[in-house]
Amino acid sequence: MKMHFSVFFLLPVLILAGCNSAVNLQTDQESDSFKLSNTALDRSQFNNRKIAETHKLRIKTTTVKLKLRHQRDLEKCISLQCNILESSLVSKKRGSIKAVISPENLKIYLEFLEEGQGELSSHQVLAEDKTFEYIDVNARLTNLESLRNRLKTLLESHDVTDVENILKIEKELRNVQEKLDSSKGKMNHLLSVTNNSTIHIRYRVPNHAIDIEQPYENLGNSFKAARSAFIYSVSSVIEFVGGALPWIPIFFAGLWLTINMFRIIFGKIILKRLIFWKKDRPANLSKID
Fold this sequence. Notes:
Helix content is about 60%, strand content about 15%. By secondary structure, the protein is of the alpha+beta class. It has a domain at about 140-190. Strand 3 (about 85-90) and strand 4 form a beta hairpin.
């Protein structure tokens, strides 16, 4: 597999500076000795900081090989006990796999991806420092647990006997428990993304990548499209006729009334002219004589 990489190893600078930011590690160089597995970050340099490591890969393949490549990579990821977050194939043109994997299995999986069919067009390594967020969520958890324990102690004591106060304490206890559960969820997510690595693979079939089977597949799709267009046209005609049927009697009735109205109006005009002509005719004849 051909690889084009460009890695700027800024992670040590990030760790030494103690910044809470993301670093994008990319490569743009070609080397036969370069190994994809070497891009996994060295966690011994983290110095107990919470770093979220993410690998984004783009793989070019063909229509025929797309499904096989996607299935192959997905099965390997599952065998390495990945937590699959997303897996999709869209219209034989693109697909994706997003998973969380342990650092120990990350190198194995990267080596496996390197051996697959297709071209690895890009590879990004993202390192995001989550230390400050971890400290904030941990402090919030400690405070909420302390408040919950105090409320429980107050509720179980005999000092509060008023029903209204008991209800207020129980309501506040429920609110604190909800916040505590939410904070625990955030903490579990932080631990998941910092103790493990996230890998996101996108597969794409370029427009110029045509397989031998592709012309036959396109011909079959053309017949299907023609059949669908014919059925759609027939259904449109049926819908038009069905919608027009109730209006046909009304149209002919209106046409009949219009014709009769014109006959009556023009008949009266013609009759008046004939009467006038008959009255005026003897006078004209006498003048001629």
